[in-house]
Design brief:
Distance between the termini: 35 Å
CATH architecture of the domain at 8-98 and 178-207 and 346-381: 2-Layer Sandwich
Radius of gyration: 21 Å
Strand order of the largest sheet: 8-4-1-2-3-14
Structural class: alpha/beta
Largest sheet: 6 strands, mixed
Number of helices: 11
CATH superfamily of the domain at 8-98 and 178-207 and 346-381: ATPase, nucleotide binding domain
Oligomer: single chain
Helix content: 25-40%
Number of strands: 14
CATH class of the domain at 8-98 and 178-207 and 346-381: Alpha Beta
Bound molecules: adenosine-5'-triphosphate, magnesium ion
């Protein structure tokens, strides 16, 4: 079982007496690992109280780093272990929903009051959702016109111009079964969930600044890579690639005839950086194996940049790498050499106050926590 926990938990539980009052959690159940972040609001800033990550593979009988499908009971078991090991004292927060489990569309509706909208949206939604409406839970949000948006993170913008008498509604649908599973997990784990949020909105909140230029966010997960373009805080385009960190480990394991576990460990330890612990031949093989996946992913990134540029006649010049895969040693340098844009690696913990001695480790593990930090930040803001 693998934990990557902050020693911060001990630091803070003694410094703050482990008070759960006012502490808020962000919980991200990913395909390969679950992450938790506990923040507290203090004098207008977010203070990091504790954080932790646990690999889910071992709960489903597969290796650390592999994507795994678990029952709600197993997920709850993993979350309980994680919260105990990370000294999490809070019990209230936000939970992420995988992007792949959601449907997001933009509806164009007449400008009517809130009550009428409440009646009209579910009827209109039938045209967009290929499932009986009774089987899904709907949430919607009127997209404001001005750039001054109260919650600029939860929106996907329609490319069409809007008629003056019309308004755009962002519609999010989640299958009831999926939501029920998550509610089940929360209940079994003893959590009070204030809201569920589709992960890309959470990651956007914690990883992007307030700039208005379009940015391509690339979330390098275990089994998939999610890409989405965010402009003025609004998600404009999304793309899912069924290739991720797990493929890198598999190729590496095959190439050097190692077990998956060993390949996973070496990938995280040395990544694309030459190491004196291995022979020249091994170093070459490691790099080649890891690059065989990464080259494919990055060529898709370039393709998305190009197609967005052509469609909207705009140049997307900034790429933000996030997700656990963005912690691969040497990825930033390689991305800067290959991608046709500026490259930055996400540092979501920069939004929270933390002891200086943790700065380096938080920066190193940060990309994997973008979703969890974003969830906790939303919760703090709405308090
Ligand atoms: N230091 C590291 N170096 C290289 N790869 C890493 C490192 N840490 C984690 N990874 C890889 O990142 C991937 C997991 O990333 P992440 O935790 O963001 O995925 P997830 O949230 O579980 O999946 P998803 O977002 O697709 O649901 C794994 O393939 C893992 O091997
Ligand atoms: Mg993830």
């Amino acid at each position: 079982m693998s934990f990557s926990l902050g020693n911060i938990s001990k630091f803070f539980s003694s410094a703050l007496g482990g008070k759960a009052d006012g502490s808020i959690l962000g919980i991200d159940i990913g395909a390969s690992s679950a992450k938790v972040v506990q923040l507290r609001a203090s004098r207008g800033t977010a203070v990091l109280e504790t954080y932790g990550e646990i690999s889910l593979g071992p709960y489903g009988g597969v290796a650390i780093g592999k994507a795994v499908k678990l029952t709600p009971e197993k997920i709850s078991e993993a979350l309980s272990d994680l919260m105990r090991e990370a000294n999490v004292t809070g019990r209230t927060g936000g939970l992420s929903i995988p992007f792949s489990a959601s449907l997001v569309s933009v509806l164009e509706m007449p400008k009517v009051d809130k009550d009428s909208l409440k009646r009209m949206v579910p009827i209109e939604a039938r045209k967009y959702i290929p499932l009986p409406i009774s089987e899904v839970t709907l949430d919607w949000f009127a997209i404001p016109h001005e750039e001054q948006m109260e919650s600029a993170f939860d929106q996907i913008e329609a490319p069409k111009p809007v008629h003056a008498k019309m308004q755009e509604i962002l519609l999010v649908a989640i299958h009831n079964d999926i939501l029920r599973d998550y509610q089940n997990v929360a209940e079994t784990t003893g959590l009070t969930v204030n809201f569920y949020e589709i992960e890309i909105f959470s990651a956007t909140r914690s990883s992007l600044g307030h700039g208005s230029a379009p940015v391509l966010v690339v979330d390098l997960g275990a089994a998939t890579t999610k890409m989405y373009i965010v402009e003025r805080g609004v998600v404009r385009l999304t793309h899912l690639l069924t290739s991720g960190g797990q493929n890198m480990t598999e190729t590496l394991a095959r190439s050097l005839t190692w077990e998956f576990e060993k390949a996973e460990r070496v990938k995280r330890e040395i990544g694309l950086v030459v190491s004196s612990a291995y022979s020249t031949d091994e170093n070459d093989k490691i790099k080649t194996a890891l690059l065989s996946t990464l080259t494919r992913v990055f060529s898709e990134v370039d393709r998305v940049l190009l197609s967005y540029g052509q469609r909207y006649n705009k140049n997307v010049s900034h790429v933000l790498l996030t997700g656990g895969g963005a912690s691969l040693p040497g990825i930033s340098e390689y991305a800067k050499q290959t991608l046709h844009a500026d490259v930055e690696v996400a540092n979501p913990f920069s939004h929270a106050e933390a002891p200086a001695f943790l700065r380096d480790v938080l920066q190193q593990i940060g990309p994997g926590f973008s979703v969890a930090v974003g969830l906790a930040l939303r919760n703090l803001k709405s308090k």
